[in-house]
Request: fold
Amino acid sequence: MGLLDERDRWAGRVFTGEWTRTAATTASTEPATGDELGQVGTATADDLARSAAAAAEHGRAWAHADYRERAAVLRRAAALFEEHRGEIAGWLTREAGKTATAVELELNLTLDELHEAASLASAPWGTLLPTTQEGRTSIARRVPFGVVAVIAPWNFPLILAMRSVAPALATGNAVVLKPASDTAICCGVVIARLFEEAGLPAGVLHMLPGKGSELGNAVAEDPHIDMISFTGSTPVGRELAKAAAGSFKKFVSELGGNNAFVVLDDADVSAAAAAGAFGSFVHQGQVCMAVGRHLVAEKIADAYVEELTRIADGLRVGDPRDDVDLGPVINSGQADHIESVVARSVDAGAKVTAGGRHDGLFFRPTVLAGVAPDMPAFTEEIFGPVAVVTTFSDDNESVRLANATPYGLVAGVHSGSAARARAVGDRLHAGMVHVNDQTVNDETIAPFGGIGESGGSSRFGSFVNLDEFTRWQWVTLRDEQSRPQL
Reply:
């Protein structure tokens, strides 16, 4: 039997350690067809408050559980994920509008997160410190935060939730997960069912779809929630961070991006254009790491635009269940935003050399040439299949243009000389830099995150997860009671 086959078990419900009916439900809709895929329960702020209190209560035993128990739950969740991989892929394809390439990327990363988290449970969690006090043992150790709220987006819903849910559970935290409404099944219901079947103790994980405006504020204000992990837009992240700061909650985030892809004048044009096209068009450009701006040396710009246009014109757009390269964008609001940025940039003087049109949610891969730094396509995060080309005269100007953004998530540099590309890359303000590669890169063990309005100093990845999902505690121990004197 499939993981989600028993619809009566989860349809119209939230997960609180058991599947619980709520006062309201919402439909999950397939963007490619408009068909309803199922109903999910929607939570209110009161529902979240009850779940946060329950998570705090049940989380205490989980925090003190044998590390082997926590690791075993994560390993069983990974095994279940592999067993039901095809079924989960189907939900990602239909609910998130993903083509096969994007689905495989997400499935592989999610499985890696579960495996890495299982090993995190047994990682060394502290160190013995020197001390000036005779007869005293001094220890610095990592301890769980308590309850971690995970707010996940719709674009890569499963991996961008699991990269917080799995390490949070592995390190002894309880979790309250709020999936995006557009992908509540392939994110929230799938994760809840995985851990339910894996034997996670009831009450340690809660899954609550609902309005972000209502539940986000509730998460920030709830006294039982100790940490927030948020992935989403910069404006929403900024407001949530302000609210969380009022109660001194830890806040980690991955926010927006307007990522630069620098192509120097000695680059192989066909290789650079292939990498740039992948970075702009994979999953319809709905990727935080997508190439937002192609910065190309004037000497090779015409050839680059010609090759990028050729690639874009050859891509197939349609229902992702068919043999296509691009599926639909997630909803009409996103399609309207993409169309608006393109139209305003064309009005300002940019030239469409490919695409520039859409049929409902199916947006043709678009190339905009002649984009100046003051145009909307250069300054705004598009989050759609649009390749924006701006030229530069020398390496110094390429750096200035690349850094002309408040964002700082990821950057790429292409050159026939790796040393030259590295020299340019070393000057870019980004949390991640890829030399002679494209920008849509993710590996589970690597520290993932940006600077500036892309999320500040927050990082995800097994290399840093112990630091992010636990906090330091200083412990001293004497064999005999001390008798200090005033």
Observations:
- The CA atoms of residues 399 and 427 lie 7 Å apart.
- The first strand starts at residue 13 and ends at 15.
- The radius of gyration is 24 Å.
- The chain has a mean pLDDT of 96.
